[in-house]
Design brief:
By secondary structure, the chain is mainly β. It has helices at residues 61-64, 86-94, and strands at 21-22, 34-38, 51-56, 72-76, 79-80, 101-107, 114-120.
Length: 128
């Protein structure tokens, strides 16, 4: 039975991340509007063996340039992902000032076509 109380407002859109995606505490997704997925050993300071695009935030730089989940990342700023340490990777994706850019060479998950994209950093958050 209605008591005259206003219905609660619908919750804000929440982006849920699958397990083992790289993000920082506080729910920060990368400064480019996407998470990255890599081999589990990276969590324990192991070497990066592979890297893919994870969740992409609608309207972000990553989304506007057509990146989608499972696109393979091969190069970051002309450096092979397998040559990056965990700390270098985290700095590259999470410690850019708004407006800074990053260049990626990605292999599209659907077409298997290689392409170059240049992303622009902005701040994005997700639910923890």
């Amino acid at each position: 039975a209605a008591t005259g109380a206003a219905a609660p407002a619908p919750p804000a859109a929440i982006v849920h991340l699958p397990r083992f995606e790289v993000r920082e505490s506080g729910g920060r997704i990368t400064d480019f509007g996407m998470s990255v997925v890599t081999n589990f050993g990276v969590l324990f300071d192991g070497r990066i063996k592979w890297m893919q695009v994870g969740t992409v935030v609608p309207g972000s730089s990553a989304a506007l340039l057509g990146l989608v989940t499972d696109d393979q990342i091969a190069l970051i700023d002309r450096q092979k992902v397998t040559d990056l340490s965990r700390s270098q990777m985290l700095h590259t994706f999470f410690h850019r000032k708004p407006g800074e850019r990053i260049a990626l060479v990605v292999r599209e998950a659907k077409t298997k076509r290689w392409r170059w994209v240049e992303l622009s950093a902005n701040l994005h958050s997700i639910a923890p």
